[in-house]
Design a protein that fits this description.
single chain, 199 residues, alpha+beta, six-stranded antiparallel β-sheet
Amino acid sequence: MSTPDAKAWAEALTMYEQRYSYVLVGPRLHQNWVLDVATVMRREATDPRSWRWIDVDEGEEERLEDPVFPFVLPPAEGKEAEAWRAKLRMVPRASMQRLLVVLSTTWLNIPDEIVHNDFENRRMELERKARVVLSRFPPEATFFTNVALPDNGDRSQASEPDFYETITGCAPISQYDWDLGVIAVSRAEVGLFWSFDAT
């Protein structure tokens, strides 16, 4: 798929409008991309292409009190920084489409979404939008997530996890107990795609 334009990107992001989700993309300026992620979390950067963001708490009281809300800023160095990075696992591009879809769903878990929310009738359209989102990032981009899947000894799950399987946990990077997300890292950009259970 070719790289999207601003209109296609904005249309694809509508998949995240029905839940508490963030989509924030900023420039990558450091070899240590965590520094750029922190800049985006502080909203001290803007999308380098001037494309749409989803920043659902902009202007809200919590944001005025804490500029990085709902995130917790990653430590810059030392053992704390290593511990923060350890919360993330690298995800192959082949698994990313499904993970981006999961982040758009009400239940943040496809088996529940199938039972309660008629997922199969929406699946093709959500997957189309996820492919558009993914196509912004070039083939050499890397992806990281805090999402946990069951360890059933399946080697294919270890190398190419299927995020339509039951999600068993997460390593939160926010002020909430349950958040799922992706950090996309290319030579030029970093992207945060994050959804929260704020109940």
